[in-house]
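To the wet lab folks,

You asked to see what we're planning to order before we commit. Fair enough. Below is the target structure as tokens, and below that is the sequence we designed to fit it. If anything looks off to you, flag it before the synthesis order goes out.
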């Protein structure tokens, strides 16, 4: 499991240790400085080509750059902090996180793919407070509040 926050911290540390600004690193890699910023903030990850270039530039192996083998830390109060929705869905599907409750606004396009992945892994998503299934292709594209639970978590 890749931890975008840890990868971003590693890229930042390597960039700083080698004396590169975000602008200079972006120029070398042929990307925007915003891309470098998004990587360093854990909001995105470099492409495979960029990873190869970063490894060569910083003289590190890809395991080091991608923090492979390092434990992933999840903030129990905000499991999305620094992680993509897909990452969190995977954590729930694999049973590393028992459940997730969402009580802020989302749209059906925010949840459809994740809900399918979770369902295929044996988990489920239920609307709150009625416990029904999320509905798609409705006139109103807003989702109700909902809870996602792993197949390893007892029904709520």
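Sequence we intend to order:
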């Amino acid at each position: 499991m890749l931890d975008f926050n840890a990868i971003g911290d590693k890229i930042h540390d390597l960039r700083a240790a080698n004396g590169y600004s975000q602008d200079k690193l972006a120029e070398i890699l042929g990307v925007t400085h915003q891309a470098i910023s998004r990587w360093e903030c854990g909001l995105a990850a470099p492409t495979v080509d960029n990873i190869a270039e970063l490894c060569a530039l910083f003289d590190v192996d890809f395991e080091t750059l991608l923090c492979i083998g390092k434990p992933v830390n999840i903030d129990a109060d905000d499991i999305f902090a620094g992680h993509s929705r897909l990452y969190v869905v995977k954590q729930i599907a694999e049973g590393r996180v028992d459940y997730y409750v969402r009580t802020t606004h989302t749209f059906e396009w925010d949840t459809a793919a994740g809900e399918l992945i979770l369902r295929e892994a044996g988990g489920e998503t239920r609307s709150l407070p009625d416990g029904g299934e999320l509905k798609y292709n409705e006139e109103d594209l807003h989702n109700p509040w909902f809870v996602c639970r792993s197949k390893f978590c007892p029904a709520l």
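Structural context that might help your review: The chain is about 45% helix and 10% strand. The chain has a mean pLDDT of 82.

Thanks,
Computational group
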